[in-house]
From TrEMBL:
HAMAP family, per the entry: MenB
InterPro entries in alphabetical order: ClpP/crotonase-like_dom_sf (IPR029045), DHNA-CoA_synthase_MenB (IPR010198), Enoyl-CoA_hyd/isom_CS (IPR018376), Enoyl-CoA_hydra/iso (IPR001753), Enoyl-CoA_hydra_C (IPR014748)
Residues holding hydrogencarbonate: 145-147
Catalytic activity annotation: 2-succinylbenzoyl-CoA + H(+) = 1,4-dihydroxy-2-naphthoyl-CoA + H2O
Protein's UniProt name: 1,4-dihydroxy-2-naphthoyl-CoA synthase
GO cellular component, as recorded: cytosol
Enzyme class: lyase
Sequence similarity: Belongs to the enoyl-CoA hydratase/isomerase family. MenB subfamily.
Natural source organism: Salibacter halophilus
Taxonomic lineage: Bacteria, Pseudomonadati, Bacteroidota, Flavobacteriia, Flavobacteriales
Single biological process term from Gene Ontology: menaquinone biosynthetic process
Pfam families for the chain: ECH_1
Site (Important for catalysis): 88, 249
Role played: Converts o-succinylbenzoyl-CoA (OSB-CoA) to 1,4-dihydroxy-2-naphthoyl-CoA (DHNA-CoA).
């Protein structure tokens, strides 16, 4: 059974390992390596990073969806074929773990990011859905970590943020046992928002995106920042504060400071209300 893909997705930019498409305000990043169950190599992650950066800048993007090609896997994590000493090694011979940059960018992106999980979300692929803002899964999806079984681990968001979803005991079980969980089990644990038949996965995701895009983008942005700040410490507060500054700059009170400077006069801040 395939996902319904009857929409006219327009290619934003051609890449080698990913598809990057747009449909009515929804940017879709599809990891396109089905022969390795959409495992990522350093080049894949560099492409995802470039695509995410473009979604940040583009005014015609309201929501970002991340998924995998085919009906077997969302993402099976790091490509074991290119794992060498020191990490995953790209064509340039440099070992790097640039997947953590993706986690940071997804959390920083001032737009919602939805994981559309169409099959296995395993290892680094599981972490990828965990760091997204929402997860919509098909009934055939399977979730799990493999790190302690295959010689890796993610003690960053892949552990701490996971524990915020499922609780400390379950997070430890997921990592210590390295078992797989059905989509329904993942939903019951609180790490998946909804589960639908595979043929309805894209329709449901597009419907959720369209509902989100009817809401105030600035309000959504501030909610994401606030929820992140709770876990992200000083960095989270910095991003929350950055958006507060953005809003302040939009106010007449901030404009008055700048205008007074340019007009070489004292600013008149007393004209502005002092809210209780
Ligand atoms: C997904 C699984 C469970 C599917 O099992 P199934 O149905 O039995 O299919 P297979 O025959 O196993 O797989 C089908 C084909 O796909 C290839 N393949 C699958 N996964 C990978 C992969 N990760 N790399 C390369 N190839 C893969 C199979 O080889 C097979 O190909 P053919 O048909 O040609 O034989 C099952 O496949 C599975 O368990 N896969 C491995 C999952 C895994 O262990 N992934 C790596 C986990 N580690 C990471 O992801 C770490 C990376 C990371 O994100 C990270 C993050 C933060 C900090 C550190 C790290 C870090 O790098 O350590």
């Amino acid at each position: 059974m395939n996902m319904a893909t009857n929409r006219n997705w327009e290619t934003i930019k051609e890449f080698e390992d990913i598809k990057f498409e747009l449909f009515e305000g929804i940017a879709k990043i599809t990891i396109n390596r089905p022969e390795v169950y959409n495992a990522f190599r350093p080049e894949t992650n560099m492409e995802i990073l470039k695509a995410l950066e473009m979604t940040r800048e583009r005014q015609d993007v309201g929501v970002v969806v991340i998924t995998g090609a085919g009906d077997k896997a969302f993402c099976s994590g790091g490509d074991q074929n290119v794992k060498g000493k020191g990490g995953y090694v790209g064509d340039d011979g440099v070992p790097r773990l640039n997947v953590l940059d993706i986690h940071k960018v997804i959390r920083s992106l001032p737009k919602p990011v939805i994981a559309m999980v169409n099959g296995y979300a395993i290892g680094g692929g599981h972490v990828l859905h965990v760091v997204c803002d929402l997860t919509i899964a098909s009934e055939n999806a399977r979730f799990g970590q493999t790190g302690p079984k295959v010689g890796s681990f993610d003690a960053g968001f892949g552990s701490s943020y996971l524990a915020r979803h499922v609780g400390q005991k379950k997070a430890r079980e997921i990592w210590f046992l390295c078992e797989q969980y059905t989509a329904k089990e993942a939903e019951q644990m609180g790490m998946v928002n909804t589960v639908v038949p595979l043929e309805d996965l894209e329709d449901t995701t597009v419907k959720w995106c369209k509902t989100i895009m009817k809401r105030s983008p600035l309000a959504i942005r501030m909610i994401k920042r606030g929820l992140n700040a709770e876990l992200d410490g000083q960095r989270g507060l910095m991003e929350f504060a950055g958006d507060a500054t953005l809003m302040y700059y939009l106010m007449d009170e901030a404009q008055e400071g700048k205008n007074a400077f340019l007009e070489k006069r004292d600013p008149d801040f007393q004209q502005f209300p002092k809210f209780p």
